[in-house]
Give the backbone structure.
Amino acid sequence: MSYVTPEDFARKMVDSGEMKMKMSTKDTLIRAYMAGAILALAAAFAVTIAVNTGNFLIGALLFPVGFSLLYLMGFDLLTGVFTLCPLALWDRRPGVSQKTLWRNWGLVFVGNFAGAMTTAIFMAIILTMGFTTEPDAVGQRLMNIGHARTVGYAEAGSGGLLTLFVRAVMCNWMVSTGVVAAMMSSTVSGKVMAMWMPIIIFFYLGFEHSIVNMFLFPIGILLGADFTWGDYLVYNEIPTVIGNLVGGLTFVGAMIYATHYKTTRTGEVAETANIQAHPAE
């Protein structure tokens, strides 16, 4: 697996966050678009497996193939940049500021949504024979998911919104674990194995992932589900994005930065200062 120590991959985390914030607008949008499209396709794949086999666990076990592919190809999800980019800001990297941070997040959101929406339109065409027939069993399942996770939360009132928010926070606990875990290895097989488990956990437990939802809810609307764009935004996407942000800022990335990167760097600075104060003769 070629294990990489926490001290070493902590540096990779900060370097990655800096690199992402300094990418051009075009590259950021393209990478985000592809990530959104691939993750949406993986969600469609997992739901199709669950419907055809009658076993959601099998779909959850195979869903991470999409996450692994987009990560290995260097594409960016909003949930991932929520975790990595703030580290470069906290480390005061040159050229990194709150403006570049929000610019990156905004561009990645737009790219992810465009990619997921493209997949939603294409899959809606496939599931309805070009909108000439009623949705098949997979389409019906997608419509039911969208309805349950918008109208269902709305009917539960404040308790529903609290549940949605907590599911979104815990989702990015797992996604950020997957993003960081991929840096623990220098081999493709090691990266995939490290990413796979936390992604299975978030998907099987029904946690709320903003980019997955950018596919599930628009396709439900396109197929004729009984909820609106307003329901989707108010009772799912906006609280989910906020929860994903909180989860990304507070879990693995921040903890590893504080316990491995920051302490290691402090020690290096102290050692450098000691050498400068007492140079070898």
Observations:
- Confidence is low (pLDDT under 50) at residues 266-278.
- The two ends are 43 Å apart (CA to CA).
- The CA atoms of residues 7 and 203 lie 29 Å apart.
